[in-house]
Design brief:
This protein has 202 residues and is mainly α. The protein is built from eight helices and three strands. Residues 192-202 have low confidence and may be disordered.
Length: 202
């Protein structure tokens, strides 16, 4: 499975864990909530949905009929298919949610993973955040070294573009430092994880 299709699978399962949706609504959520899929079309989403249904991770169900029995025949439209996460699909999402390897730190993957941090355990969040910070610090070192080597050869506009890129990475590193510190403080205080906060009530 390619990186692109892998992160799409993760996002679809995660959104459907919140509630069943039909394809148009799901594409809209991908476009508006997860920026990396902003230009995604239903033509790209449909094969992913079919694959997930074939794996047994999603189930297809017809949407509820309209309250007016004459509305459907008059409109001439077919009922929309609603996609629902199965028990196996939930297990698959939990498995993907627990992953903390290098793919989770990359530009495209990190934003999507971060969008589901509310459903992720603190230990996993920490590993992903620290991995992302390490990756950006490596990138920053390379950018600084490259700029030092080529500074004299660059015109003012190219030099300014290089500085802008470095400042963007530096800002994200500072943001990650704040997030990591916040996670550590939460752990030190012994706060429950989001997935455990409400499970103790009877």
């Amino acid at each position: 499975m390619s990186r692109r299709s892998g992160i799409l699978e993760f996002a679809v399962l995660g959104l459907l864990r919140e509630a069943p949706m039909h394809g148009y609504e799901l594409r809209k959520r991908l476009n508006t909530s997860l920026g990396v899929f902003r230009a995604f079309s239903y033509g790209s989403l449909y094969p992913c949905l079919k694959t997930l249904v074939g794996q047994g991770w999603l189930a297809e169900e017809p949407s509820s009929p309209p309250s007016d029995p004459l509305a459907a025949p008059l409109s001439g439209r077919r009922a929309k298919i609603v996609y629902r996460l199965t028990a196996e699909g939930k297990e698959r999402f939990e498995e993907l949610l627990a992953q903390t390897g290098p793919d989770t730190w990359e530009d495209e993957h990190f934003g999507v993973r971060f969008a589901f941090f509310g459903q992720t355990t603190r230990d996993v969040r920490m590993r992903v955040l620290e991995g992302r910070r390490s990756r950006l610090e490596e990138r920053l070192d390379k950018m600084r070294a490259s700029l030092a080597r080529t500074r004299e050869k660059l015109d003012d506009y190219t030099l300014e573009l290089q500085r802008h890129g470095m400042e963007s990475v530096e800002r994200e590193v500072r943001w990650l430092n704040e997030l990591i510190e916040s996670e550590r403080e939460g752990r030190d205080r012994g706060n429950p994880r989001p997935d455990q906060s409400d499970d103790t009530t009877t």
